[in-house]
UniProtKB/TrEMBL annotation:
NCBIfam families cross-referenced by the UniProt entry: CxxCH_TIGR02603 (TIGR02603), Piru_Ver_Nterm (TIGR02604)
GO molecular function, one term: electron transfer activity
Pfam families: DUF7133
Keywords associated with the record: Heme, Iron, Metal-binding
Listed name of the protein: Membrane-bound dehydrogenase domain protein
Cytochrome c domain boundaries: 867-1002
Organism of derivation: Gemmatirosa kalamazoonensis
InterPro entries per the UniProt record, alphabetical: 6-blade_b-propeller_TolB-like, ARM-like, ARM-type_fold, Cyt_c-like_dom, Cyt_c-like_dom_sf, DUF7133, Haem-bd_dom_put, Membrane-bound_put_N
Length: 1006
């Protein structure tokens, strides 16, 4: 049987051929999946009822609602089978009490909910997040058929997992949700961009929000607030009884930087540069040495710290468990499904200064079943957990390998029968009892009932507040008591402010803000609270408060900073947002000569005001300041507004500066208005001499438009010495802009063949219309040596326009015979489908043979073979390491890092990724074509983008920058930049060994 089966058929056959112990849909316990001690995992529903669950929820009656994703990525994968009727919203029910679903109801089916990513069941309303739409289905009569479907919000029309995710109901009665960084804008049902309560348009364009966001709204969708931003792809947000928010966030694939966050209100979480939007891999001052911290800009002022790093994975649904059925480590903890790591974890949290610390506990994980892909977790009314298992050989990259299976798993103590009694909401007492449920749907119904009763429910709620041993139950009661009108609500807030539990004092302050009580009056009572967490919350409450009292309170809080608590510092920064010009001088006056302490230096570093500039300069000049701290203070200048004071302060630092300081000043300065400054010119010469041969050198030449002939020759030598590096290619681009191809032509036509190839290579990588024309000229000049012509062809073929030109030359029979084999391989693996198809027609389709000339056997036969990982590592280093790193903590080379790929992809998916890389492309690694105004094109992966320029990763270790003024248009490719002919460079056994090596890399988490 030939290897090139249709991809879906090949994987379907492969899954069917896996060992029986791997695919088990019934029985207790489940082979290949292990629960933590004391818990038992059983299959509640299997592929007889559902396939490909993407999200689930459990209603107050204990029924499990599931979204299916059979029609996942149909636009990206037209070869996949499609369910014409659309995907389904299912209700699964156990009517016999045996712990397995025996009744299935289709609540809704349609193409408009294909592979929807979020569901929240809130009484008679069901909120479904389906890419460009958030739908609200209404089932008023309770017959499990919606009478009405309405649009709550619209978003960017992009089919991406980085879109809008599930909604949840908070203890304050509001809706909470989040969006990934593909949701560029939030609109109302009529298509109008929503303006949030702060007066900002809810977009990710940096005014002020960037990337993914966490949001809150009233139950009808009004009153939208952006609570935090600058995430990559948070899948869900969880809200606990105190109103504290928690979530996970996915890294750029392969960087072991998946993180868990406490979502500090109004925080910036650092996926991209706050000021410019530059990507995390872009060069910056004071860059973090560790990739996970660098990934989230943890050294930048204004970035909230991360709670926990969990390594590699594909983090999905998350919740806070507030029940009593499960063991003690899980109570009050986040519980999180990580599909990439094939694990459900808990994160018990403890207080740590103004923030938190957490540890990781495995709750349910794969032992031998590599297809286990938990994507969501929800608590049932009895306190057990339900887990949605996507079940697939891989996850991520917008791909799916199996459309036949899926399951829902129940997790509970061994022998715990599934029994649910629907809540009794006919009385206040019954509603108060339901308010204690571990199930959020039951709590929502109870909250709504008690809120409607108002003062009539006060006695029952007061009883909970006064006598409940669980502070979370007391917090839920407090939210409702604080909502009572007039003095009644104020009295309950006052009582909570005096409670001994800091979480309840925090809840009281949040409730006062929720119900429009005077926040400053409440804050004044807590400004010297012994708990830094309470004081953190006071700082957050000051954001946007313009009174003199707010200034006084902020200064009092700032004077209590200990200089060690980054959580506290960032809360101060959020509280002072847009008021630094008032708050900072008041603090400076109060601090007096004591400003130069660890705590004071923190405040100076975090401040955003001209008043802080002289103090930053003083810290940089101080010989006692360690070198690392000096970098920290220089980085702070990047977050100050562009003002004359900023320029003057930076220029003043040039006096008597050493080479390093001079370079840092020049990197931070704005160039406008300083070109004629003799002091600056002298400093620039010193900095160029100190940085010769580095990326900083090229950046300075570009930034200050240096045109000294001696510097031009230095750039040329740098380009020749490092033609495969970013600095070499950027140096060549500067030379090309200044002098054209003449300096490179002279080298190509010179006597040194190595320098000729280097010159041709770097000019080809630099690109541009003149460079492209010269590369074409060399490639077709039969009088030149073959090695030089082939080097030119390799530079010419990857170009978007160059591949078309090279194909035309071949079609017209103008290609020299000695180049045909190489050119055929280049064109048959082109990124451009039309070129690839035409090349196959012209040269013939290459059999997918290995280096030893053998045709590969079927995928299902390959996947059950066992290779030698040690030999595979050697073959990988020879074939793949140019573009992919398998070293933990290494920066990206070109494609995603693979240090934990074995935990993310099972062998079937690994073979597919190696042999058919376009079947699933990791988000953020899509190819991009830039068409430049000079008529040339550039192809690569967007590494960073700001308002002014795009940094394009054009090859292993090579990033080039293009000003947006140079770009005529851009296009995202639907094909991977990884060539599909990899197998031809390996023998069959080497391919098996490489996959064995990849499968051995990491468990997917640390």
């Amino acid at each position: 049987m030939p290897h090139r089966l249709p991809r879906r058929a090949a994987l379907g056959a492969l899954v069917a051929a896996l060992p029986a112990a791997t695919v088990v849909w019934t029985g207790t316990p489940m082979p290949g999946v292990a629960a933590m001690p004391g818990l038992e995992a059983v299959v509640f529903a299997d592929s007889a009822m559902l396939t490909n669950p993407t999200d689930l929820d459990v209603d107050a009656r204990g029924r499990v609602w599931v979204l299916e994703g059979f029609n996942y990525r149909t636009a990206m994968h037209p070869e996949n089978p499609v369910r014409p009727e659309g995907d389904r919203i299912l209700i699964l029910e156990d009517t016999t009490g045996d712990g397995r679903a025996d009744k299935e109801t289709v609540f809704y089916q349609g193409r408009d909910v294909d592979a929807a990513l979020g569901i929240a069941v809130l009484g008679g309303k069901v909120i479904v997040s389906a890419y460009e739409h958030v739908f609200v289905f209404t089932d008023a009569d309770g017959d499990d058929r919606p009478e009405k479907k309405e649009v709550l919000y619209t978003l960017s029309p992009e089919e991406s997992d980085h879109g809008v995710h599930a909604f949840t109901y908070g203890p304050d009665g509001r809706l909470y949700f989040n969006v990934g960084n593909a949701s560029k804008v939030l609109k109302d049902p009529r298509g109008n961009v929503i303006v949030d309560r702060a007066g900002n348009r809810v977009t990710s364009e940096g005014t002020p929000y960037r990337q993914g966001m966490v949001l809150r709204a009233e139950p009808d969708g009004s009153g939208v607030e952006v609570l935090a931003h600058n995430f990559r792809n948070p899948y869900e947000v969880a809200v606990d009884a105190y109103g504290t928010l928690w979530q996970s966030d996915n890294d750029d694939d392969g960087n072991r930087a998946v993180r868990i966050n406490y979502v500090m209100e109004h925080g910036n979480f650092g996926f991209t540069d706050e000021m410019t939007g530059a990507g995390w891999s872009a060069h910056r001052t004071n860059v973090e040495p560790e990739i996970p911290k660098r990934h989230w800009h943890q050294n930048d002022p204004g970035v909230v710290p991360n709670l926990l790093y969990t390594g590699a994975g594909a983090p999905s649904g998350i919740m806070v468990y507030e029940g009593a059925l499960l063991p003690a480590p899980l109570r009050g903890a986040m519980i999180h499904a990580d599909a990439g790591a094939s694990v459900v974890r808990a994160y018990p949290v403890r207080r740590d200064g103004a923030g938190y610390a957490a540890r990781s506990v495995d709750v349910l994980k794969s032992t031998t079943d590599a297809m286990f892909r938990p994507v969501d977790v929800a608590a049932a009314p009895d306190g057990s957990l339900f887990v949605a298992d996507w079940y697939d050989p891989g996850v991520g990259g917008h791909d799916v390998g199996d459309l036949s299976h899926g399951r829902v798993i129940r997790l509970a103590p061994r022998g715990a029968r599934y029994r649910v009694t629907p809540p009794d909401l006919s009385t206040a007492a019954g509603a108060v009892a339901a308010l204690a449920s571990p199930n959020h749907a039951a709590r929502q119904l109870a909250h709504a009932k008690l809120a409607s009763l108002g003062a009539a429910a006060e006695p029952q709620l007061a009883g909970v507040w006064r006598t409940a041993p669980d502070p979370r139950r007391r917090a839920r009661a407090l939210w409702l008591l604080a909502a009572l009108p007039g003095d009644a609500g104020a009295r309950w807030i006052g009582a909570a402010l005096a409670d001994t539990n800091p979480d309840l004092r925090i809840t009281a302050l949040r409730a006062a803000r929720r119900y429009d009580r005077d926040p400053l009056a409440v804050a004044a009572k807590l400004v010297r609270d012994p708990s830094p967490q309470v004081r953190r919350e006071v700082a957050l409450a000051l954001r946007g408060e313009r009174s003199v009292e707010a200034e006084r309170l902020w200064v009092a809080l700032a004077l209590q900073h200990d200089g060690r608590d980054r959580w506290y510092l960032e809360a101060l920064g959020i509280g002072a947002d847009e008021q630094w010009d008032r708050f900072f001088p008041a603090w400076r006056h109060a601090a007096g000569d004591g400003w130069n302490t660890p705590a004071g230096r923190d405040v100076v570093w975090r401040a955003r005001t001209d008043s802080a500039l002289p103090l930053l300069a003083a810290l940089i000049r101080d010989p006692r300041t360690p070198a690392a701290e000096r970098l920290r203070y220089f980085r702070a200048f990047d977050f100050q507004r562009r003002s004359d004071a900023r320029q003057r302060t930076l220029l003043s630092l040039l006096d008597g500066a050493d080479g390093t300081t001079t370079t840092l000043v020049l990197a931070a300065l704005d160039t406008g208005g300083v070109a004629a400054d003799a002091r600056l010119r002298a400093a620039l010469d010193r900095a160029l001499d100190a940085t010769r041969g580095t990326q900083e050198y090229v950046e300075l030449v570009r930034k200050y438009d240096v045109r000294d002939p001696a510097r031009a020759d230095e750039l040329l030598q740098l380009a020749l010495a490092t033609p495969e590096s970013s600095e070499g290619v950027e140096a060549a681009r500067v030379v090309l802009r200044r002098s054209g191809v003449a300096p490179f032509r002279a080298l190509v036509e010179g006597d040194d063949p190595d320098r000729a190839v280097a010159a041709l290579t770097v000019v080809g990588r630099a690109g541009g219309s003149a460079a492209d024309a010269y590369v074409e000229e060399v490639a077709l000049d039969r009088a030149r040596p073959l090695a030089l012509r082939l080097a030119a062809a390799r530079m010419w073929a990857p170009g978007w326009g160059g591949s078309v030109r090279l194909l035309k030359v071949a079609q017209e029979g103008k290609l020299p015979d000695d180049m045909k084999a190489t050119v055929a391989d280049l064109l048959r693996t082109s990124w451009r489908p039309q070129v690839r198809d035409a090349a196959i027609k012209l040269f013939g389709a290459p059999a997918l043979t290995t280096a030893d000339g053998r045709t590969l056997p079927p995928l299902e036969a390959l996947a059950v073979r066992t290779g030698d990982a040690a030999r595979g590592r050697v073959a990988f280093q020879r074939t793949c390491a140019t573009c992919h790193s398998t070293t933990r903590g290494a920066a990206p080379v070109f494609g995603p890092g693979l240090s934990a790929i074995g935990g993310k992809l099972a062998k079937p998916a690994l073979y597919t990724a190696v042999l058919h890389p376009s079947s699933g492309i990791a988000f953020g690694y899509e190819g991009t074509v830039l068409r430049l105004r000079d008529g040339s094109q550039a192809v690569g992966i967007v590494a960073s983008e700001t308002a002014d320029e795009i940094a394009l990763r054009v090859g292993p270790g090579i990033t080039t920058k293009y000003r947006k003024s140079e770009i005529a248009s851009r296009e995202t490719l639907d094909r991977s930049l990884m060539p599909e002919g990899l197998a031809r460079s390996l023998t069959e056994q080497q391919l098996v060994d490489v996959v064995e090596y990849l499968a051995s890399l990491g468990s997917g988490h640390d």
